Amino acid sequence: MTDELTPETPDEDEQPIKQRKNGLYPGVSDELAENMKSGWADTELRDLQPIEQAPNAARRRAALSARFPGERLVIPAGNLKTRSNDTEYSFRASTEYVYLTGDQTDDSVLVLEPTKDGHEATLYRLPRSDRENGEFWLNGMGELWVGRRHSLTESAALLGVACKDVRELAEALKEATGPVRVVRGHDAGIEAALADKVTAERDEELRVHLSEARVIKDEFEIGQLQKAVDSTVRGFEDVVKVLDKAEATSERYIEGTFFLRARVEGNDVGYGSICAAGPHATTLHWVRNDGPVRSGDLLLLDAGVETDTLYTADVTRTLPINGRFSDLQRKIYDAVFEAQEAGIAAVKPGAAYRDFHDAAQRVLAERLVEWGLVEGPVERVLELGLQRRWTLHGTGHMLGLDVHDCAAARTETYVNGTLEPGMVLTVEPGLYFQSDDLTVPEEYRGIGVRIEDDILVTDDGNRNLSAALPRRSDEVEAWMAGLKK
């Protein structure tokens, strides 16, 4: 990575160049500065068509406008975050901003200005780098350093929203009058400009509303989730094909293999991949992925491709590393499969959201009592939650732009709500016997099993978006054997 120039923006009049402490060039000559101003082709993109999600985003903005009439609404995309020194993490725009615009550009802000008939939407973004003042090559965020940005005209054509220079926004917001709401936590500069105009309670109402708006997915979103799942299926196939190489290295080989599929076919992974081999499978969010991969153990792979529109899959399979379950592994796996079958069957319109969780937990409690690991009857176990020592987590969650989507929704709308067509959720029961759990027979210790699928609620029941990945133990073995031929 080159390090000659500072990331600071030069002053528009004097153009001083603030060097990095150990930069190799002492300055810029007048001749070079003048030379860099000219000789560049016109690269403006014309005849652009709106992106696919533009009409969907417009409908969402209209619904938001109707919910908060007469109020200025400010939804930032967020800013780059420093990883170390002068390098940044890869940028991921805020979910609320992406949902309402389809855009993913850092430092951008959507503002809905109240009008007599609703709201006028404006996207505030950084324009093209200025060639006249040298910004495009002297600024560390200039286009010769980080790549070309869309012009404001291009952005307006692509997104279907009027665009203005974001560098003017903070001052404009300071002068704004009337009620204002902002989505907090993404842009400190914008929040500072609105500090005397907003309240935490009103801002939280906006965040909650935008979370609940995403509970029902439209056709575009369902298509993107299916695309994410389909790529994820191929990623799981990739992993099975290289398990022998993972045995020679570590869980990192599995993580890298899946990430390659995600990066080639999508934007990224939707969350840190859990590539948990052996006893690591009993740690719910094992993302260190630095342990050994051994024949005879199980691999719990929980991973999801995120599409280039930022919708993510979330799928888990627990696989025998050598291709065959031992008798005990199969017994535990089959119990989890049976619990998942009961959970998926409970996913249907009109059912309580909690029904699929309760159905899966009942099956797991029954098996734990049957195996003598907890004293029955089953009703007592469920009433006291005793099964949770080995089941630990809830049986699923909403899925969408976030892996745990709609998380800010009200409890009465989410976990105490009712399933409706268009909802997408995971069903993911598990059993986890910790290596140091002296309450279970020694042979159980260090075995963890989870099976997770992404389920769409339909008009007449549900559709398993990830059904292409086998789940039944004998089908898993046959699938793995076929991939290794």
From TrEMBL:
CDD domains: Prolidase. It comes from the Bacteria. Residues 1-14 have a biased composition (Acidic residues). One of its GO terms (molecular function) is aminopeptidase activity. Signal peptide: none annotated. InterPro entries: Aminopep_P_N, Creatin/AminoP/Spt16_N, Creatinase/aminopeptidase-like, Pept_M24, Peptidase_M24B_aminopep-P_CS, X-Pro_dipept-like. Its cofactor is Mn(2+). It is an enzyme of class 3 (hydrolase). Keywords: Aminopeptidase, Hydrolase, Manganese, Metal-binding, Protease. Residues 1-29 are annotated as: Disordered. SMART domains: AMP_N. SUPFAM superfamilies: Creatinase/aminopeptidase, Creatinase/prolidase N-terminal domain. It catalyses: Release of any N-terminal amino acid, including proline, that is linked to proline, even from a dipeptide or tripeptide. PROSITE patterns: PROLINE_PEPTIDASE. This is Xaa-Pro aminopeptidase. It comes from Streptomyces bugieae.
